[in-house]
Write a structure and sequence with these properties.
By secondary structure, the chain is of the alpha/beta class. It contains ten helices and eleven strands.
């Protein structure tokens, strides 16, 4: 019997958008600023109209008349701006607004995805076939496509570090998730309204998972690693246990699947940590038709590996 580990990237979500294009045609995950995202509690107001710092900066980027390849490039520019102005308050409000926009945008996407019939999707069949063999999944995605798949296949799971999840196969989401919310400390309630007038971000607090019907409500804090950003939360109280589990338990996988991860430079330190702690005698399957030379160089001297298409 196989003992399967997985590392999942944005390729799974892209595959979902392609397969369910009739329902998800308006959700290109590389152009999320173009999505119709409405303000929590104000269903007739576009969310960007309640995020003035982000809206202003996006207009500034458009005024540069650069050929922006995708919204990842815009986010990279925003991150650079924030890092160059660390001693000022405004950039951190911009960061907070950006994090909240991403969370609500992908929650909006999620509301569409949960209405898709997963029955005949390739990945549904794959997870049904291997449901008893999967032992550990690392997902770099904020969305809940993976979780919806597991629910459909009746695979119980718990996300490492999430206080109100206690049983099932281990899922580790080091870059955060759209249904994570910080837990109130010392019974002190925090209420968020839009526009945001105070930066609440990167506080390294415990998290819980939200119910599906709360995904489009305001968050107190959004702990996510932004697209094309190096993680600032590797040592967070709900992230570090996942890497420690991987490091110290030394799971003896027979197969490890890298599903739709681009091995981007910003993620490389974390992915390398994972690869470095895999046993070298497993079968590594790279599910990406065009893996980077950097990834091939990383794995070729340690693993027997082969490359497959996503389907």
């Amino acid at each position: 019997m196989q003992r399967i580990g997985m590392l999942i990237g944005n390729g799974l979500t892209i595959a979902a958008c392609q397969h369910f294009s009739n329902k998800l045609k308006d959700y290109n995950t590389h152009h999320f600023f173009d999505w119709e995202v409405y303000t929590p509690g104000e269903s007739d107001v576009l969310f960007l109209n309640r995020l003035p710092y982000l809206q202003k900066y996006l207009l500034y980027l458009e005024s540069l008349n650069e050929n922006w390849q995708d919204d990842f490039a815009k986010v990279k520019n925003i991150i650079k701006h924030i890092n160059n102005n660390k001693n000022k308050e405004d950039p951190y409000i911009l960061l907070t607004e950006l994090q909240h926009f991403i969370a609500i945008a992908f929650s909006t996407f999620q509301q569409k995805f949960i209405n898709c019939n997963l029955q005949n999707w390739y990945w549904t069949n794959w997870f049904l076939k291997h449901k008893d063999e999967i032992e550990f999944i690392i997902s770099f995605n904020y969305d809940l496509v993976l979780e919806n798949l597991l629910d459909y296949c009746n695979i119980d799971y718990q996300r490492i570090g999430v206080r109100n999840e206690r049983s099932g196969k281990y899922i580790f989401k080091p870059h955060g998730s759209i249904d994570y919310e910080i837990i109130d400390q010392n019974n002190k309630k925090v209420y968020i309204h839009y526009p945001i007038n105070e930066a609440i971000t990167r506080n390294n607090l415990p998290v819980k998972s939200l119910a599906v019907n709360n995904l489009l409500k305001p968050r107190k804090e959004v702990d996510i690693v932004l697209p094309d950003e190096h993680s600032k939360q590797i040592n967070y109280c709900w992230v570090k246990p996942g890497y420690d589990y991987f490091k110290f338990n030394k799971i003896k996988f027979t197969h490890f699947y890298m599903l739709g991860h681009s091995y981007s430079k910003c993620d490389r330190p974390e992915v390398d940590f994972i690869l470095d702690h895999l046993n070298p005698d497993l079968a590594l399957i790279i599910l990406n038709p065009n893996p980077t030379e950097a990834l091939i160089s990383k794995v070729k001297n340690k693993f027997i590996f082969h490359i497959e298409n996503m389907v």
